[in-house]
Amino acid sequence: MNMKNLKLREQKLIFDQLILNSINNTHIIPDSVYFDEAYYEQLTKELKNKQLYEKYLTKELNEISPGFIKMCSVASSSRLCFLYFAGDNNATMEVSLNTGTKGNAQLDAAKGNTYYECKCHEIFDNHDTDKNHLKLSYKKNLKKYFGINYQEKDENYCKLTLRDFGIPKNMSIYDLRFDMKQFLCHLFGIAKNGGGTLQYIFFQPKKELMEKKSFCTEIYKKLEDEISAIWNSEIIKNMCNNNKIELPKSKMVDVSTITDIVLQNII
Q1: CA–CA distance from 190 to each of 10, 70, 141 (Å)?
Q2: Can you give the pTM of this predicted structure?
Q3: The Cα angle at residue 108 between residues 198 and 50, in degrees rounded to 5
Q4: Over pLDDT 70: what percentage of the chain?
Q5: Of 243, 226, 225, 215, whose CA–CA distance to 8 is shortest?
Q6: What are the residues whose beta carbons fall under 8 Å from the beta carbon of 215, sequence distance 6 or more?
């Protein structure tokens, strides 16, 4: 692991602890940022009650022992998204949209034609990995929607920079805090399905806790600057206008304001 990724990993662990300190930490496994087996059992019960268990099973619930599944992390965006929309009967969780290629756009939630992508500690992820690269199968979509005629033949993914989208920075889209590859896939999916609104939600610690860690302030500032540059790109705006897509301002949600129905229902 290189120094950059090691630093991000360390920051992610500290961030998780800030999330933990922002919520009621009942049923937390000691010396960890994971909920315990009682929470796991009630979480799966709530998911089954809402006919969502099978949807989350392939994404967040895995074969790791109870308490250490990804969705039992206090900073799991899937858990927080589920809780955020738990009382909204109009919300559909885990939505898949056809992009016109081999891959689908996977969104956290939808209400009508408003689609939601939720993030928490993912802003510390390294996006320059095989699974986060835009595959060559998307070349036709790049040409169709953005007028980008990608010609490289010796690569197994599309090596794109911000300049390809009219943003005057010679930076790879995979070096951003913002997951631009996923964003492009979301745009392809929403366009293919007739348009709509793409709303980003970022779950974060309490402001007073976050401000004590300078790297948090810095990384959110970087994230906001990246999103602003992308949203204001003429190439992005033209694509959205041509395909009836709206990009509202991202929502920043304090995790302490979210009601945890799982904790409430643990007997």
Answers
A1: 35, 27, 12
A2: 0.95
A3: 130
A4: 97
A5: 215
A6: 11, 14
Strand 92-98 relative to strand 245-246: parallel, antiparallel, unpaired? Answer: unpaired
24 has a pLDDT exceeding 80: yes
3-state secondary structure the chain: CCHHHHHHHHHHHHHHHHHHHHCCCCCECCCCCEECHHHHHHHHHHHHHCCCHHHHHCCCCCCCCCCCCHHHECCCHHHHHHHHCCCCCCCEEEEEEECCCCCEEEEEEEECCEEEEEECHHHHCCCCCHHHCCEHHHHHHHHHHHCCCCCCCCCCECCCEHHHHCCCCCCEHHHCCCCHHHHHHHHHHHHHCCCEEEEEEEEECCHHHHCCCHHHHHHHHHHHHHHHHHHCCHHHHHHHHHCCEECCCCEEEEHHHCCCHHHHHCC
Cα(179)–Cα(181) distance, integer angstroms: 6
Q: For residue 100, which of 187, 22, 183, 37 has the smallest C-alpha distance?
A: 187
Q: For residue range 140-174, list pLDDT tens digits in order.
A: 999 999 999 988 776 789 999 999 999 998 899 99
pLDDT band, residue 60 (cuts 50/70/90):
confident
pLDDT in tens, 184-229: 999 999 999 999 999 999 999 999 999 999 999 999 999 999 999 9
